[in-house]
Design goal:
mainly alpha, 2 domains, 78% helix
Length: 114
């Protein structure tokens, strides 16, 4: 069972990204004990970091569905631009590279969501 200082430790380590030295000083706990907490509470630190990342992604509206939609829009625009090209000037190869990279990302995201 965690005590309140351990709960503070998890928050400071995961959400505030503070160093072990700073946390030890702020909580007035020996650095060796803090290092033991780091090992013992690692799964909870990882979980809290994941929650914090999800909060940021949600607040910025950049979740996987939004990103997928943006990639599809970009691919569509690149494809339309390629359709206009007569291939006489070159940087068309760069356009193909970008279009292929976008398509590969779309496929990767689609496969990951299955």
């Amino acid at each position: 069972m965690k005590n309140p200082k351990q709960t503070d430790f998890i928050r400071m380590r995961a959400a505030e990204n503070k160093s072990l030295i700073n946390i030890a000083g702020e909580l007035d706990i020996d650095i060796n004990e803090i290092m033991q907490w780091e090992k013992k509470l690692q799964p909870e630190i990882i979980n809290m970091k994941a929650i914090e990342y999800d909060k940021i992604i949600e607040s910025k509206d950049i979740g996987s569905i939004h990103r997928f939609n943006s990639l599809c829009d970009t691919y569509k625009r690149l494809h339309a631009e390629l359709d206009k090209r007569d291939f006489t000037g070159l940087p068309t190869d760069k356009l193909y590279d970008i279009m292929n990279d976008a398509y590969a990302l779309i496929e990767e995201i689609k496969s990951a969501s299955k």
